[in-house]
Amino acid sequence: MFAFPGGVGLKKNSRLENPDSYEKQLIRGTTLYGKNRIEFAFQGYDPASNVLTKVVRFGENLCGHPGIVHGGLISAFFDDAFGSLFWINSNGAFTGVTANLTVNYRSPMPAPTNVAFILWLEREEGRKVFLKAEARSVAGQSDKEGDTGLGVGSIGASVAGSKSILFAEATALFIKLGAVVVNKT
């Protein structure tokens, strides 16, 4: 069990995706994993709060500017993590596609660093699924004076702790595709 300062523990859940099935895919596959790249990533889902948390360590070879994680990678990781949350919430009954992804960067994400991507379902309207997320520092990295306090009171702050640094916020709109649509593509 991984515990954050907010007191929420994340237990391994049988509804989590099988990481072996993604070996050749870009974000969760082996392409970006390794020393000084994505050094580790794991996830936990809390069904009581319907919150998915993915903790990842970004190494220093994933930078746009020296010492700062590339914004495109952050955006891609949000999109991939939203897909995981969508899949978990649909219990595997649907697949879906990203119709819209918006990322607002709030603070440079240093590299190397451990980051908690905290995601939740905002609402559903028929085939439309609206999702939100935050990328925050992991406890111990930012629990010090000089905390920006950005996002205090948010779901992300309640999971990662009020002194965690808010690196980025994201929203997504996913569209549910039925099994028939998926099989035709």
Structure notes:
With 185 residues, this protein is an alpha+beta fold. Helices cover 17% and strands 39% of the residues. The N and C termini lie far apart (39 Å). The relative contact order is 0.19. The model is unreliable at 1-17 and 141-152 (pLDDT under 50).
Strand portion, in percent? 35-45%
Tell me the helix content.
Answer: 10-25%
Q: Uncertain segments of ≥5 residues (pLDDT<50)? A: 1-17, 141-152
**Adjacency order of strands in the biggest sheet:** 3-4-8-9-10-7
User: How many E strands?
Assistant: 10
Q: Shape from CA axes?
A: globular
Q: Please provide the ordered H/E string of secondary-structure elements.
A: EEEEEEHEEEHEH
Structural class: alpha+beta
Q: How far is the first residue's CA from the last residue's CA? A: 39 Å
Largest sheet descriptor: 6 strands, antiparallel
Overall pLDDT score: 78
Using only C-alpha atoms, the radius of gyration works out to 16 Å
SS summary, helix count: 3
Brief description of this entry?
This protein has helices spanning 71-89, 155-160, 179-184; strands at 2-3, 9-10, 38-46, 51-58, 63-65, 68-69, 95-105, 113-125, 128-137, 166-177.
What descriptors fit this protein?
17% helix, 39% strand, alpha+beta, six-stranded antiparallel beta sheet, single chain
